[in-house]
Amino acid sequence: MDEPRLRQLIPEVIGVLVRRGADFASAEDAVQEALVTAIRTWPEDPPRDAKGWLVTVSWRKHLDLRRSESARQGREVALDLEPPPGPVPTVDDTLRLYFLCAHPSLTPASAVALTLRAVGGLTTRQIAEAYLVPEATMAQRISRAKRRIAQVPLDQPGDLPTVLRVLYLIYNEGHSGEVDLATEAIRVTRQLVGGADDPEVAGLLALMLLHHARRAARTDAAGRLVPLAEQDRSRWDPALVAEGVGILQSALARDRLGEYQAQAAIAALHADARRFEETDWVQIVEWYDELVALTGSDVARLNRAVAVGAADGALAGLAALAEVDPAIPRHTAASAYLHELAGQLAEAADLYAAAARAASNLAERDHLTRRAAWLRQRTDQG
Amino acid sequence: MAKYLLLKHYRGAPAAVNDVAMDRWTPEEIDAHMAYMDDFATKLGETGEFVDGQALRPEGAWVRYDGEGRPPVTDGPFPETKDLIAGWMIIDVDSWDRAVELAGELSAAPGAGGKPIHEWLEVRPFFDAPPTSGD
């Protein structure tokens, strides 16, 4: 059994333990221990029934943990050594796990970590490596999060927008270490689509798939960022595009628009253009209008201004940009792009250089610096 | 083995010989610089001397405690005169001489005109761990 399939079983197994009477925190601990054992022993000695194995071993670990706990407390606690028979796990169990792990009382960083562990079935070491922090730090973050949600009743209604935000955060973290967080986010979102009857979940999955389809084209062999306009579109993954578009269309047909569906629609329109010049910017601007109406977000307004520049000309774009709070990230970069589009190359170069100084990641900083250098070279010669 | 910090400054270090802002280089010169830096880090990884490398964004602020029950005082953005660290590399090498050799190599990274920048880097030894034997 491969590791992703193994991980898929984790939330179900936690669900079984909780239904047998374990509290979430100890169920999660026990399953994590069983998982670490599985990763170590299965390659040599794979079980016939993977899920049955995980349930049995996790339950045993849970009992061990409780025994040592009660021994520490120095009192006798009657333990049912045989697991009580429980109903088969349902979709609702897994859904409740999502709600618990991405509980609104948790900070985003804690919700992300807990979701990756309990829903995603990653080990603490893998999560720590993906976020470039020491394993002890991540372990502490997870156990604090578990203590925090210990008081949350399992039957409390969940907050779906928080869950979606956490999943999108995980997707956007990209990847480092042995686990690819973007792929992981897609996997757990896919799992959620079956359980949560809301077109926004499908919208988020479509958005992730459509972004993911472009991934190979987004950097070149030297690791440099390639902007959308210059991407080699033959390197976009047509299967992922088709899947994303299909999921989006069924979601939109339900006529309950939300921010993720709107963003996915924009991504789908980009995916639909065989060449950058064929992009349907007029429709993209309309979707940005929807997005701004839905979210009121300044980031959406900023991106809308860039799209207006492409649809109606650079000056219209600059006019739209003038309405956006200049303090938001990438404002200077957007301004640089629109000035370049307007043919004001010297101003554009200065703005790109300023945007590079304000960039929040190195790939973007290097890209903006190169853009400034390239424009300066052209203006110096011209 | 001993650890050393190679410290790079946005400002505050003596001026480099080839001191031109990166956005005034050609795109090819930028690429050559990036490739040199990548190769340097890769090579140190292969020799078993690389520990860590991080880059810092240029913004930030001074912060200090302002007494019980009061929020910390911040003083920022930094004035143009402030010494500003851009990033560091930590290496674990046999000797001070090796640390200096590597810092020299890093400082030779190509800049404008494809010529070495001759950037001044700060090299700082870490405190050693106390010896486990001998007293």
Report on the structure:
The complex is a heterodimer of chains A (382) and B (135). Chain A is mainly α and 382 residues long. Chain A has 18 helices and no strands. Chain B has 135 residues and is α+β, with helices and mostly antiparallel strands. Chain B has one domain: Dimeric alpha+beta barrel (Alpha-Beta Plaits). Helices cover 24% and strands 27% of the residues of chain B. Chain B contains two helices and six strands. Chain B has helices spanning 27-47, 96-107; strands at residues 2-11, 50-55, 62-64, 73-75, 84-93, 122-125. In chain B, strands 2-5-1-6 form a four-stranded antiparallel β-sheet. A two-stranded antiparallel ribbon of chain B has the order 3-4. In chain B, a hairpin with an 8-residue loop joins strand 3 (62-64) and strand 4 (73-75). Chain B is flat. The model of chain B has no long low-confidence stretch (mean pLDDT 94). Classes of the chains: A mainly alpha (382), B alpha+beta (135).
Q: How are the SSEs ordered, and which strands pair?
A:
The complex is a heterodimer of chains A (382) and B (135).
Chain A lengths: L2 H17 L4 H18 L8 H24 L17 H11 L6 H12 L4 H7 L4 H15 L10 H13 L8 H15 L3 H15 L24 H16 L5 H14 L8 H15 L2 H15 L1 H9 L8 H11 L3 H14 L3 H20 L1
Helix pairs in contact in A: 1-2, 1-3, 2-3, 4-5, 5-7, 5-8, 6-7, 8-9, 9-10, 10-11, 10-12, 11-12, 12-13, 13-14, 14-15, 14-16, 15-16, 16-17, 17-18
Chain B lengths: L1 E10 L15 H21 L2 E6 L6 E3 L8 E3 L8 E10 L2 H12 L14 E4 L10
Antiparallel strand pairs in B: 1-5, 1-6, 2-5, 3-4
